[in-house]
Amino acid sequence: MTTVSVITPTYNRAETLPRAIESVLGQRHEEFEHVIVDDGSTDDTPSVVEGYDDDRIEYVRLEGNNGANVARNEGIRTSSGEYVAFLDSDDEYYPGKLEACVDALESLPERYGGVFHGYDIYRGETYLGPEATDDGRVTLSDLGEANVPGSFITTAFRREVFEDVGLLDEAMASSQDYEFYLRVAREYDLYGLGTVLAKHYRQDDSISLDLDARRTGKAQLVERHGDVLTARRHAHHHYLLGLTHAKRDELGPARRELARAIRLDPTNPFPYVHLATCVTPTTFALGMSAKRRVKRLLGQ
């Protein structure tokens, strides 16, 4: 059996897909398969994949555009690896990603269903800073406070996890990764590797700017996992809504959401920063820049 399966859902990312593929082919751990699931692309994605002569790459094409979790689930069903990792088609792994994840999963007790790590954030060629993680155990209680692993690109899971808790929820409008982590944590612990092993590129068409998707996803999370979500987590939802409104130059609604975040969790300093700078689009941008500088200095 292949040691690890890397699942990449893609839709009209012919320009960035080579970066993702080459980052997998460049892994120090070479016992992998890379399952690329094309979710109905209308660009040159098929020819991009055909340009790689490596039998570890498997290309699956779906009819229509069905959503990232549908594509991920098809990749999981198609794959055969003992471990399963995810990589979006506009992101990339650092060379030691698979090696570190496989080594950790092979050394950890089976009660740990998956591992995760930090990642660097870019917008184009501009480095925005790291999203760091601590080293050690993460439980359901921890996840009720925050989406500790973050993006799917940080993770690798034992295959039996999907057999025990099910595949990814295709109905989720947003927070697709977080909903799955909560489900996993009801049966297993997770383990943070405390190191940065991937690059995440923020895109202008990201679901993070879709207010309706954010609100619907929050309602779905409450329906499925409301018993473990804490005030801090609810505060983070309003904080993100505030940032989304502000990025759309909707400063009044942004201030209201940031104020709600502060009422629910007065210990987080960042909503205060954004509320104070949410006067004009220019001052808000300055506040965002200041936050990024602080996070870079703190290494988180």
Automatic annotation (TrEMBL):
Entry coiled-coil feature ranges: none
Stretches that traverse the bilayer: none
Keywords in alphabetical order: TPR repeat, Transferase
Any one GO MF annotation of this record: transferase activity
Domain named Glycosyltransferase 2-like: residues: 5-165
InterPro entries: Glyco_trans_2-like (IPR001173), Glycosyltransf_2 (IPR050834), Nucleotide-diphossugar_trans (IPR029044), TPR-like_helical_dom_sf (IPR011990), TPR_rpt (IPR019734)
TPR repeat segments: 235-268
Domain of life: Archaea
SUPFAM superfamilies recorded: Nucleotide-diphospho-sugar transferases, TPR-like
PANTHER family, per database record: GLYCOSYLTRANSFERASE (PTHR43685), GLYCOSYLTRANSFERASE 2-LIKE DOMAIN-CONTAINING PROTEIN (PTHR43685:SF2)
Name of this chain's protein: Glycosyl transferase
